[in-house]
Amino acid sequence: METQEFYMQKCLDLALKGIGYVAPNPMVGSVIVYKGIVIGKGYHKNYGSHHAEVNAINSVEDKSLLQKSTLYVNLEPCSHFGKTPSCANLIIEHKIPKVIVGCVDSFSEVAGKGILKMKNKGIEVVVGVLEKESREINRRFFTFHEKKRPYIILKWAESKDELIAPKNQQEPFWMTSSESKKLSHKWRAEEDAILVGRITAEKDNPELTVRGITGHNPKRLVIDKNLKLSGNLNLFNSEVKTIIFNAIKSEETRTNQFIKINFNYLTKNILEELHKQKIQSVIIEGGTKTLQSFIDANMWDEARVFLVTKELKEGVKAPIIEGKILSTIKIDTDFLKIIVND
Prior knowledge:
single chain; 342 residues; alpha/beta
């Protein structure tokens, strides 16, 4: 007979299908097992749509089997009525006798209430199966609710001589391979927002959109203290909303939102504003000054650094970062180093 961990891993695999589509909700997968056989499965597909448990229960053809089955889910079933009805109530309604939960939901509206509600109705509830893995896939969600800020991913490409851009750069510049670029666009589609500083916006004139793969465009964020950036930049096209953090005005137009903030404790103030906007994760793509400001403030969670074989001789120094190197993998001609803030 398969272990509880085996079925929970199936929940995690299902949950990951929702990446980039369910925020600010967590990614959740669920399977229903009867006598060692999976008779139902589902995952949360889009924000505002049915939760994983609902989809799993709906997928079971013979509903009478639910009263003799075990439901697995990587995150505690919700106990409140939000965009959709309570999953804990649905489980109780179908008289499912046993529920295996990966981890507790720290969102204040849930936070153990779903587990307690099911236990009070006589349901056997087991908590903590693949708990570490269950928290890891929803690290954005947990960071947002527990630290009251978005999950921050830093990303840059670094030459062999530890530079990220040539001296006196006059036009857009790329160092990475085509495969690394493709991966970067996949990452954009997985996060709520993408941030750059003013100098990067000027010199690279990026669109900060998703291209070459299927996925949603993140909200675009730029730091422009004195509103010096030209409105003709790609950053301000109508493809997706752009938020401009500045020291002059707060105003909203059809596609742009200007947010006036205090530039003292800049990173802290930006993260507070993003939390208000319910932006759960941000990938920061440059430049060095912007990246280093988040590193120095210790307001980062993960760094993804492409190491390339090119030498630039002269140019802009790469950020200086310390953390735990999680992995280094080869991507075409580049090496990708993943660093976590431990």
